[in-house]
Design goal:
It is built from six helices and no strands. Helix 2 packs antiparallel against helix 3 and helix 3 runs antiparallel to helix 4. It starts with 11 loop residues before the first helix and ends in a 9-residue tail after the last helix. The protein is elongated. It folds into two domains: 58 residues, no CATH class; 63 residues, no CATH class. The protein is mainly alpha-helical. The longest helix is centred in the middle third of the chain and has 36 residues.
Length: 137
């Protein structure tokens, strides 16, 4: 069993700075505009694993398992949202109300930059609304 060491450098300030390296790496890479966000996230993930393994003495296997668990935990909600959006799309097409829904949501603003946000919020609201079972038939 591994016991976590909260102050591996015997200095609270220095240990905190080292622990913040992955987040700082991510933000600096994104702010520099030279690295795409997904590459910045991968680089920050590598930095986080290196800091955990070499500075905080986390066993490498445990670090990699934690990384895999974090990926699965992050992708599950995204997959669930996509599945619900597909269900909602198929339901509205089957009932013949997709164009009405599309015109209603798309008609909120003519600004094309705001339409994806409007659609996303609308779909999220529709997905989370407690519809009565009789409205699906």
């Amino acid at each position: 069993m591994w016991n976590q060491v909260y102050d591996p450098l015997n200095s609270q300030a220095l240990s905190t700075i080292v622990a913040a390296l992955p987040v700082v790496t991510l933000l600096v890479l994104i702010a520099s505009n030279k690295v795409k966000a997904h590459w910045a996230a991968i680089i920050a993930l590598i930095v986080a694993n290196l800091v955990a393994i070499f500075i905080f003495t986390l066993p490498a296997g445990m670090s990699l398992r934690a990384t895999a668990l974090g990926a699965v935990t992050g992708f599950f909600p995204i997959g669930w949202i996509v599945l619900n959006v597909i269900f909602l799309y198929r339901l509205t097409v089957e009932k013949g109300v997709f164009e009405i829904l599309q015109n209603t949501i798309g008609g909120v603003t003519n600004d094309r930059r705001l339409q994806p946000s409007t659609r996303g919020l609308s779909i999220s609201a529709l997905r989370s609304y407690p519809w009565p079972a009789s409205s699906y038939s």
